[in-house]
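Side project, low priority. Logging it here so it doesn't get lost.
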Amino acid sequence: MRTSGILMHITSLPSPHGVGTMGAAARDFVDFLQAAGQTWWQLLPICPTSFGDSPYQTFSTFAGNPYLIDLDDLRDEGLLEREEYEGLCWGADPLRVDYGLLYRQRYPILRRACKRLLAAPAPGYAAFCEENAFWLEDYAFFMALKEAHGGAPWQDWEAPQRNRDPETLERVHRGLGADIDFWKAVQYLFFRQWRALKDYANARGVGIIGDLPIYVSGDSVDVWAHPEQFQLDENLLPTEVAGCPPDGFSAGGQLWGNPLFDWDFMEQDGYSWWKRRIAYQCEIYDVLRIDHFRGFDSYYAIPYGAKDARNGRWRQGPGMKLFRAVEAAVGRKHIIAEDLGFLTPSVHALREDSGYPGMKVLEFAFDSRDGSGSVYLPHNYPRNCVVYIGTHDNDTALGWLETAPADGVACAKEYLRLSEAEGLHWGMMRAIWASVADTAIVQMQDVLGLGTEARMNVPSTVGNNWKWRAGPGFAAPSLAGRLRHEMEIYSRLN
């Protein structure tokens, strides 16, 4: 079936409280998607972000981001009073997230809401804690410990806590009971709102595409609680870290810094951590996009402490052994393989053997910096793929036309027959809607015709990413009508 959707992270929705949330604006966006004939709402990871505010560097692969909890919905449930959060300063620019201010303002408010929740727990609270105990217990303890250490990474904690000495942890756990309960309650509030939003979307024929980063953050409960799953030395420091080699976009490559998996141990363990991780993610989303899929074939390992990615080397990943084990345990799931980057015949074979649809990026077809060329031209797409103009790591359509090499832009304009009369961005969207790809996803920034100022992320940079927000009224009925008409033309109507 031919379908289409829109990529827009929840943080980018408008709201009066500093960041997009799972409240009324999210439900309004679902209504817009339904009216526009869209089948999918694609998100970035919804986990709690750590340093740099990237949704791909989080404190837990299972927990939800407290910033996304809607305060008005908490008020409607009797957990907040309006005066407890209205009138506070949430940032000078309503079109940009101020994460520092958000961190300072949000948590005192959530503590009030959680205090009321814990004083009279909702009927489902105990069941939530029991069903999610396999990750929630460690997560809540980790966050309480982190807070007790002033936010310091766990690698800087006292040795008994860093090394998870049982007697020490038992004693510290007793002293942090109230804080641990708070972090559990926050997760209950998050997932109660998440379930309500997903149910709202599904009831209107809109599915949610979630995003699973291949790696986890070094400063995360995942590494602290399960160090045996990662390539760490006797001091619990990484021996090598993740990244990407130099390419046309970055002379020094990309140094992500995530610890690498100990694939030998994981195989001996039956890939139990991955089975839990993928099963859980497939429960909370309708479709799961796995980021950096090529890393399961072979992965780029960079010496720990390196300043950039130049001196890394390729190492062998688990390949189909992992995916066969996961499928045997949890069944066949709806998964998208993000098979971008440096691709080899073995990477293509892995994606084909998995049967998962891969990804195509229209901008790459014309950009000499990528070097992939013709495989991204629409006339070469297979049906079993998901096509984008660009992803969260790329410039918007109009931004790309302004900043890409001139010869590539000229080629794109000729090949795609772009015109100012239609709108250059509409011409690029038309190209992917008209392709044979089963699924076409466009960024909301491209639907709105925004430039580089609305770009979500510039890889290997910190400080100005993940901040873009749409203004009030962005999802206009007239815009939905135009999108719906295009879906009718290209047989992608929901």
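Brief comment: The first strand starts at residue 3 and ends at 7.
Revisit when time allows.
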